[in-house]
Structure formats: structure tokens, C-alpha cells
Amino acid sequence: MTEQTISTPNKDLSKELSKEHARDVFRAMLRARVLEIKLSNLYKAGKIVGGVYIGKGQEAVSASLGACLTWNKDVFAPLIRDQAGRTAFGEDPLDATRTYLGSAKGPMRGRDGNLHRGRPAEGLLAMISHLGAAVAQVGGVLLAKRIKGELDGCVGATCVGDGATSTGAFHEGLNFIAVERLPMVVIIADNQFAYSTPNDRQYACDDLIDRAKGYGLEGHSVDGTDMLECATVIGNAVAKARSGGGPQLIVAKLLRLSGHGEHDDGSYVATELQEGRYGRDCNDVGKQQLIEKGWLTELEYSKWMLEFNAEAQEAVAVAQREDGPNPYKEEWSAIASPSLKGLQ
Amino acid sequence: MTEQTISTPNKDLSKELSKEHARDVFRAMLRARVLEIKLSNLYKAGKIVGGVYIGKGQEAVSASLGACLTWNKDVFAPLIRDQAGRTAFGEDPLDATRTYLGSAKGPMRGRDGNLHRGRPAEGLLAMISHLGAAVAQVGGVLLAKRIKGELDGCVGATCVGDGATSTGAFHEGLNFIAVERLPMVVIIADNQFAYSTPNDRQYACDDLIDRAKGYGLEGHSVDGTDMLECATVIGNAVAKARSGGGPQLIVAKLLRLSGHGEHDDGSYVATELQEGRYGRDCNDVGKQQLIEKGWLTELEYSKWMLEFNAEAQEAVAVAQREDGPNPYKEEWSAIASPSLKGLQ
Amino acid sequence: MAVTYIDAIRDAQERALAENPKVFLYGQDIGKFGGAFKATKGLQEQWPDRVIDAPISEDAMIGMAVGAAIEGMRPIIEMQFADFSSVAFNQIVNQAATHYYRTGIPVPIVVRLPSGGTPGSGPFHSQSMESIYAHYPGTVVVTPATVADAHSMLLQAVDLDDPVIYCEHKFLYRWLKSDNFEGDNLPIGKARITRSGKHATVVTYSAMVHEAVRAAEILYKEGGWEIEVVDLRSVKPLDIDTVVASVARTGRILALGEAFPWGGVTSEVVSRVCAEGFHLLDAPPMRLNAKDTPVPYHPKLWAMHRPTPESICEALRNLLAY
Amino acid sequence: MAVTYIDAIRDAQERALAENPKVFLYGQDIGKFGGAFKATKGLQEQWPDRVIDAPISEDAMIGMAVGAAIEGMRPIIEMQFADFSSVAFNQIVNQAATHYYRTGIPVPIVVRLPSGGTPGSGPFHSQSMESIYAHYPGTVVVTPATVADAHSMLLQAVDLDDPVIYCEHKFLYRWLKSDNFEGDNLPIGKARITRSGKHATVVTYSAMVHEAVRAAEILYKEGGWEIEVVDLRSVKPLDIDTVVASVARTGRILALGEAFPWGGVTSEVVSRVCAEGFHLLDAPPMRLNAKDTPVPYHPKLWAMHRPTPESICEALRNLLAY
Ligand SMILES: Cc1ncc(C[n+]2csc(CCOP(=O)(O)OP(=O)(O)O)c2C)c(N)n1
Ligand SMILES: Cc1ncc(C[n+]2csc(CCOP(=O)(O)OP(=O)(O)O)c2C)c(N)n1
Ligand SMILES: [Mg+2]
Ligand SMILES: [Mg+2]
């Protein structure tokens, strides 16, 4: 697990969802959920400094995206609620635990924390906090690949929330990828809240998918709680972008099933919403759907749960055993150029 | 002319365009054109430092907006090509000549120049250069009026170009006014170029009006070279916003009939475009339309031209006679608070 | 009953709303939720029309505020974190800060920036941006270090006619307590001698005032050194008279700040002291800032990135030994 | 045949494109049109896929560049005016400048900022933003003052692994001429003695180097004063060794800049000289900056807003008289 072994082959999904792919998506959803529950517990036990932000309820959307992306070939900029997408894409759970727990061995070496992690050299960008900023960045990776003549068959992807759609960065980024017609998929996970702010204080259109046309993007709507729908729609959108169909915008409707972070009880989310159409848990839905299709048995499910629990447990244990960064051995420089090291 | 005398009464336009209003719009178009030709000539003669930016070809759009706004009540943030809107709204031509020629008596006192002028206390905002920044600002004026209980019957307005739609500021501003449902009219004058950049490098949708729905704005398209259509459509949109119909987005199609500024020959504009549908001059169209309707005679037109030429001539002459700012008498402080004057 | 620094910010806003109908609050999650740090808790209930939730649009938030101020209002804008004001940078420095100079119409807005580092907050929730905004003509930048200053300076900021960047330090929010909000009500633009001394002066502001006092205590115990601590309170305008008067007494100065080391408040302080009190200096004026990297996430790195009582003592020992 | 400062910028970009397939140019109107200042004239014809017109989206332009750099490219981004980089501020300081520190993956981008005042350009087409970007860890900020430096430093900037803010002064574009682009090819990070002297040192950069030389000439004629002029060339890193060595010779320093007076390069220079060469100073280190207002439009105001040979001479006379 310490090596980067989990990767997903380049899937060129046809309209028909395969059993194999659906199971991959669901496994990533489960793995992410299990890992995030661990992280949440660690936070509540005071073992994680800063904050923990989980993607409960958004796993179907996120995993459906990540499962279509190929490590070391595609580029993915996950945001706040994309543990499932990271997992499906191929992020090692140790990257998460090490970053949250501040192990010096994590990809961020204690310099950055929680969600602000990635492996940019392998296609997983490390988000900054400023919402919307990743859209243009992913576009830049793709533009670079185009200039180098290496774009063929590649795709870029990112997820944002409803709140992030209000940022200028998001707008400029979307417009840029549309003008350049880059093979990119942008998912808006419209979970009805930005922190405490409900949609009616965030935007005034009926549905954010109404924005697709205005950018000249192909648009897709999806029920973010319906795993099979997510896997199909998102899978097709990725396949379309990959095969030259131009940039794709997907709006997934769902509900954030946690607080904004684990410090937040989310008590401002009305009960009607929790009990409403999008209040259901996509992981429950996904399990049900696979079982109904005969693509999963209860026994398998239990085995997976055991496996993922053990994996998460181990990832936490490893990270907890590791030292944090040693401030006395830090280089304390933000400069990369060898000729300028030590100058200020 | 040195006093602010020209103002337009609050017009609540019905669908039917009145002769009176159509003539007002056209007069403003002519006055602006005449003034800007003078300014352009001054620039070419080396009498204006910096640059001159004119609205040739965009007068119908701009005047149709300005003519529906009431000085000292409504709020208007003109942009680059809005001399006609300024004139129709009630800006004294002296404000233009004084600002361009750097008279200390102008509203900007030589501190800012050319288009960066206004009378914010009277509802005419003074643009900064950064495109898109005025949208939220106008919205802020309206929000303030709402909080004060003075919003009833007021309207706010601004114009931007096709290029400005790519800015994050424009997006954030539009979204904000939509969420607050402010009585505001935003016109996109899509003149097919942003400086030298043609639309296909600026946006990827078929028509910028496709963006209205995505913001939850009511949208209107108009042929910006057709004066009567502009006066009607823009007039109705302003009336609608004023009477509680919520924010309105108008996209006017036209062609910039000048260079970006008078330093630019605009040679990158293809002949087909100049000879195409939007290549015609709205001022010619407007004159023709009024004459056909029997709302204007050639004789009147000639009298107006004489009148406006004299007015522009006088405005230039006055400004040229006036002193520029005296740097030795400047306060050289950007601080307004009396208690902090002189501190740094 | 003790009140905290964040209580002071909340109470000042409550009073401003109560006393001045021109005041309104605008920011993300500040309404029913009461703000990410609860600085506006309960205020929307009392003034539903004057405590308004904003979309995640920092640029538009400031653009809006400028328009509202032109229309005579006195908006207080909450940035969720100072770091996100980077997105509003243009509207702050080019729209708000230039408006009075250009047009003669003032833009009295207050922009609240939850600033500074706390353990585990990382590069994008820890920044100190006072130097960025202070560089531009037309701004006022305040950096309260005490509960009473947090209170009175916010009220004063609302009354100023200029855009005020109000840098509130997150580390002080709940940690810093006082019996009440009362203080000496010094005006913005005046520094304060927080602790008097005679051997050296530390000029600082915001959370570092407390670290400086700690360092002063250590050195006093260690060798009877009496370190004077000057709290700038506002970094623009910067009360150089009080600073120079202190240097006149001590002959030695350390300018201390939590921000990045290139430029910034500490270099401005040193430069001004040189310009106005060079002959008073018995030793080279010194600076101590954070290290020249983004603010790190890990508490151990964070603790070494910013100045600490220990590193301040070390700097002061060098200064005293000169 | 004379070449100009803007020719140097254009030629350096041409060479970078020719020699390094990783280089590409991105900016508004830089393609067929050749850029607002013609710095990219004819380049798109030669490299249609590597000279790309951008929408008016400064934030996205830098976001794009960061992504491209991560993917191994070396983009050069043209801001139409430095002033508009305010809209890209967040992407520059938070995305580009932090990336290497956070991830270990460098972000080698060059951001060209047409900077500084020219008569009639006004508050939003005249700004000098070097201090803003230099404040942040992870940036390199260069400010060439000569034709040869404009050329060599742009090529060097492309080769550096960090985000480089390349501040090119618009006033020098066509006014500053040279026989060719050749120079001493000093590396970024090294200052240069532009004129040697023994009575006082002026430390400056960009267009002000030429104003300083003019002032030095005036004072030489006036009273035989020999003023040394140090051209910093890059303000971050800042070559304090060369500055201090100069102060060792002259004992007197004036830090001169065209930017706003609060903070900035001049205060950083003064502070560092104090830290590293205090004992060498025979007089208080002085600063001269622009006035504390936005850059005014009117040429008469503009000429008084920025330092001029006359105001520099006045400052130097005071310095020499101390
Ligand atoms: C530019 C910017 N402003 C403010 C914030 C603070 N912030 C972090 S997450 C968040 C809410 C995001 O909501 P949304 O985009 O809907 O994502 P969700 O949390 O619902 O997944 C806010 C306001 C930020 N990160 N960036
Ligand atoms: C944020 C920003 N970036 C760049 C510029 C420089 N600039 C001034 S006008 C202009 C073109 C504007 O095009 P458009 O919005 O279509 O208006 P038009 O000139 O066609 O009326 C540009 C790029 C600017 N003013 N603001
Ligand atoms: Mg959300
Ligand atoms: Mg245009």
C-alpha cells in the first residue's frame, strides 16, 4: 500500500455500463466512506489538527468521475468532497492519512494538510483553498499536452460545489476551456449548501445546468444519489470528452450528508431536505442497485467492508506511527531554482 | 452649459415607442457622435494625452439606455463606448472635454482622464479600467437604496463589451444582482471584437444571450444597429426592471466602427464584417428611420448638427482655455477622513 | 464575566448596527449561521435587512460595498478568511482605495479580514495581508491586539471616511479575554506603549504584541532587561512619533511581525525610524518576521515559521549585545 | 541600427520560442495583433500553436499557466498592463508561488507586467506592482532597466524554475535604445553598479535608474559630487551584498523607487542595509518614492507624482549635507 499500485485502466465507456465498472465505482465509494469515517472519528478524538471535510453523500458522483480517469495519464483536480474520486482515480489511502495526520512522509510533508494534497506529477492536482481556481489549472495541463502533441486520448476533470460556481475563477476557467475546446469534464456537485448558505442565496437560475449553453459546453444533469445513473452519465461524458467531443459540464443534484466540516453539525439543513428526494445515501442506493442487478452479494459486500476497514485502519496506524516534519531540518525556502537557493 | 442642466425625465416606457423618446435617443446619438469626432480630431492633432476611445457604431444601444435613466435618481455605470449613453443620461459635454483635456475644472480635476470620469454623487459612476468591476458596484448602489427604503422606481444600469464578459468580476456581479433581484439592466454590446480579439477567441457559446437563463436573468436580444429596435427593446427592459420585473440582460449585436482607440486603425477587422449585417452605421439607420416615420425632417437634422457642432466646439474651447491642475497646490493625499489627513 | 476578542468584534458590530442606520453587514454565512467564527451571531435576527448573506464572490462583495458606500451607507464586509480577500484585491485597491482621490466621493467601507496563523490552518487560512493593502494609497489598515481595541477600533473604523482593512487575528479570537470591552479608546492612527522599558523597543502589532510581551518577561527574569513594547494598532497610518519617542528612550529597536519577510510592516517601521530618529539609534534597527515560505500546516512547522517568544528573545539578545 | 527595450523583449521571446519547445506565449491580443505594445509582433506567424490569444480572464490566464508548467511547459504570460494583474493576484501568489513549497513540483512561469507610469496613462495603466508580488514567498521579481537586461533577464527568467514576475517599464519601451541586445549577461539576483561614485549611493531599479543617473550628472556638474548608482535589476532576490559594498564606499544611501511610498522595495533596501551594513552609514539611509496617491492622469501631476531628477537631487543634497 505504500507504493502507488491502485490504478484504473483507461476506460472508454460505451453507453452500456459494465458490471465490472459499476463494481469499481461502488468499491471506491465504499473505500472512501470507510476511510472518511475513520478520519472523522480521529478528528472528533482530537487527533487531527485543523479540520476534516468529508464527502458523505457525494461518493457516487465523485467515484463515477475518478473511476473513468487514468492515473499518470489524465489529470484530476478534486475539491472538498472528492475522497471517492481520489480513491477511484488511484490515490493511496496513505496519502490521505499521512496528510491529515501530518506525517512527514505524506506527499505534502506536513507543509499542507487535509484536502490540500495531491501528486501533481502523476495527474492528481493539489488544491488550493480558493474555490474555482482549479478549473483553469486543469485546462492548462491539457493545453500543455496539446502543444506537446500528447493530448490524444487524455481527459482532464474537476469537481466544484454549488457555492464555487459563484466565483469569478470558476467562470473564467469554464470560459477558457470552452474557447479552447479542451477535453475536460467539470462536475458541479450541487449539494444545496455552501457551508450554511442555501442555494437561493447562491444563485438565481432554476438549475445550474442552465449555464452549460451559455459557455458553449455540453451539459448533463444527473441525480447524484443514484449510483448507476451517475456512473452512466458521468462515464459517458468522460468518454465523450476523451474522444474529441469537447468540454462537458455535469450538474449533479444531491444533498451534503455531513456538516460543512466535522466541526459543523449542519443543523441549518432542514429536515424536509434530509427526508426529501436527495436526502438518501448514495452508498445505500448503490449497494441496493448492484444487488438488484445481481452484480453484488451481501457476502461480498461484507468482505469488502472488512477489507476496506482493515485498509483504512492500517493507513491510519502507519501514518500515526510516522514522525511529523522536523522543523530544524526543513529547508525553509519556497524557491525551486538552484541558482537562487538561499537568496531572498 | 457649465451647469448640469440637461436631464431626462423618468420615462416609464410602454411597449409603444413615442416620437418624443425616439427623437431624444437620436439626438443623444448625434450629439455624442459629433463630440467624439471632435475628441478624435484633437487626439490626432496631438492635443490629448493618453488615448481617446469612441463609441462609433454603438450610439443606438448606449443612447437607448441612457435616455431611459434619470439623473440624480437612477445609477449608470458607462464603459468604454458609452458617450451616447452619458449624453442621453445627462452628462454635460464639458465633463468630457475637460476630462480629456485635463482641465482642473473637470469632475476628475486632472487626476483621472478620458473615460474614467463620472459624477458618482449624481448617479453617474466613474469607471475604473478593470473590466466587469462596475456590475457589482451598481448593484451595491441599488442594494443601499433598498436598505434605505429608497429603491422604489429606481433602476441601475451598465454596459460592457463582449470581451468584458470573460472577466470573473462580470460573472460575480451578474450573479449577485440576480440573487438579490435588483432592478438593474446590463447591456452586453457585442461588437465582435475585444481590442483585436474576435469573438471566437473570447467565448464559445452561440450567442451571449444564452447566458441570461444561467443567471436567472430575463434576456433580450437586439440588433444594435437598429435604432428603433434598440430604443424599444432597451426601453422596455428598463421599464420592466424599474417596475419590479427583476434584473434584465440585453445582448446587442453590432460592430465596432472605429479602432479600439484612436491610436488603432482596426485593420484586423475583416472587410466582410464591415460590409456585413452589423457594419451599417446606427446613426444613419436612426436618421433614416425617423425620417421614414415622419418624426424628423432633413432641415431639423441639419439644425441639430449645427447645434451639436457648436456645442462640442464650445465645450472644447472652454476646456482648452482652462488651466490644468497645479501640482504645487495639490493636496497629494488619497485619504478622506479628516482625522487622518496628513498621516501616512 | 470574561469577554473575548471575537465577542468584542461581534458586540462592536451589534452596536454599529444599533446606532447607525447606515451600517449593514455583508459576507458569506454571516446571517442565520452567524459567520464562520460567529462574529455576527444573532445579528440577522435583530436586523434581517441589514445582515446579508453573500454568494462566494469576494470581488463582487467589495464591488457591492463600494457602490453602497457611494450611496451613503457604511457596509462592513466579512471575508471568511483574510486569505480569500486575494480574490477581492482588485476591487479593494483599485476600486475602493482610489475612489476618493479620483472623484472626491469617499468610500467608507470596513473589510474584516480574519487574519494570521493558527496551528493546522495551513497556507490558505493563515495569511497576514496588512502589508499588501497598506502599500496602496487610500487605505487605512488596522490591526487590533487587545479586546478593547478590537471593539473600539471597529467602531472607529465604521466612522472613518476611507476604506478600512480591519485585520482581526484568529489566534486571539477565543484565547484573548478581558473583563469588558472598555479601554482607553485611543484613536486609529495612535500607537500604544503596551509595556514600558528602557533597554530596547519592540515595535509590533496584532497577535505578536502578546508574544513580544512574553519575550520581554523572559528577558526581564533572565537579566533584568526592560523591554518596551509598542503596539502599532494601525499599520497605516503608522504612528512613527510614538515609535521614535520610544527609541529615544531605549536606543534600540526590533520591528516584529508575523507576515512574510520581504517588505511589509517591519521594513516600513525600520525605514521610518531611520528617517526620523537615526541619531537615536545605538544599534542597528532589527527585524523579525515569519520565515520566507507559505504558512505551513503542521503545528510543529507553524510554530517555527512565525516568531515565538524564544526567537524574539534571541533577536533581542543580539540587539542588546550590540 | 538601434534596438529598443521593447525590441529586446520581443527578441528574447522569439529566441525562447526558437530554442525551447517548452516555451509558449499566452495573453490578450498577442497573436496576429502582436500585443498592445507589439512585444509579440510576428511571433504567432512563426509559431501558430505556441502564441495564443487569451480571453479577458487574467485569473484563468495564470491558472492555465500553472497547469501548463506542472505539465512541463514554460509559459510566458503577457498581462496587457501590470495593473490588470490585480485580477490574477490570487492565482499568482496562492497558486503559482506556493506550489513548489507545497508539492515539490516547480511552476516555471514568467508573467510579463508592462509596468510604471507614462504621461496620461492614469491610475490604472501606470502601476508598479513589484513590491506586491515580492512580498510573497516563492516568487522571483525582476525589473530590468536596460535593453540588454530586458533581453537577457527575460531569457534567464524562462530558465528559472520559479514563477518570475517580469516587470518591464513602459516608459522605456521605445525611448530606451541600444546598439544591440548584448550585455554583461549578469544573472538574476545580481545588482549592477551603473555609475560609480564615492559620495553617496542611489539604489534603484527599472526606469528610475535613468532618472538617478541624470540626477548624478546634475550633482556632478553642480558641485563635483560623485554619486554611485546601483541598479538592483531584481528586487527579489535582492542583492544586498552589492548594495552594502557600495555603501561601504560612500557611507550614504538613497533608496529610490517609482512605486507607492508605504512599504515596498525602498523600505526593504533600507532595512537590509541597516541589518547588514549599519556601521557603514555616515548618514540616515533615505528613501524617495512616488507620492501617496494613485498615479494621476494629467502629465503635470504625473511628473510631480514620481521622483524626478530634480527631486532626486534635492534628496541627495539633503543626504550629502547630513
Ligand atoms: C474564494 C473562496 N471564498 C471562500 C472560501 C471559504 N469556503 C470554503 S468551502 C466554502 C463553501 C463551499 O461550498 P460549495 O462550493 O457548495 O461546496 P460544498 O462545501 O458544498 O461541497 C466556503 C465558503 C473559499 N474556500 N474560497
Ligand atoms: C481586467 C482587464 N483586462 C484587460 C483590460 C485591457 N482592455 C481594455 S479594453 C479591452 C478590450 C475590451 O473589449 P470589449 O469588452 O469587447 O469592449 P469593446 O472595446 O469592444 O467595447 C481590454 C482587453 C482591462 N481593461 N481590464
Ligand atoms: Mg455546496
Ligand atoms: Mg467588444
Automatic annotation (TrEMBL), chains C, D:
**Know the name of this protein?**
Alpha-ketoacid dehydrogenase subunit beta
**Which UniProt keywords are present, listed alphabetically?**
Oxidoreductase, Thiamine pyrophosphate
Mind listing the GO molecular function terms for this protein?
oxidoreductase activity
Which prosthetic group or cofactor does it need?
A: thiamine diphosphate
**What is a single Pfam family found in this protein's UniProt entry?**
Transket_pyr
| UniProt lineage | Bacteria, Pseudomonadati, Verrucomicrobiota, Verrucomicrobiia, Verrucomicrobiales
Q: Does the keyword Nucleotide-binding apply?
A: no
At the top level, the lineage of the source is Bacteria
Domain Transketolase-like pyrimidine-binding, first and last residues per copy: 3-175
